[in-house]
Amino acid sequence: MEIRYIIAELPSVDMKRIYILGHSMGGHGSYILIQLDPVYFAAAAPSAGSGLRRTEPFITASVIKDVPI
After folding, report:
1. Nearest to 59 by CA among 32, 41, 36
2. What is the pTM for the complete model shown?
3. What is the structure's pLDDT at 50?
4. Going by fewer Cβ within 10 Å, which terminus of the chain is more open, N or C?
């Protein structure tokens, strides 16, 4: 939540165009964050892996189905 306040206070930020991206573990983190608040992000670009050692599911597709990925 704290980073959201910082972003909102920046003078040149369009709050309707907040994007998230990450590679490897950052890609995993991107998936987690868009699931926590799918309305906040305009789009996501996760890349190269989930960060899991097993193949257990960690994405709830119904939650992020409207987020462009």
Report:
1. 32
2. 0.77
3. 64
4. N
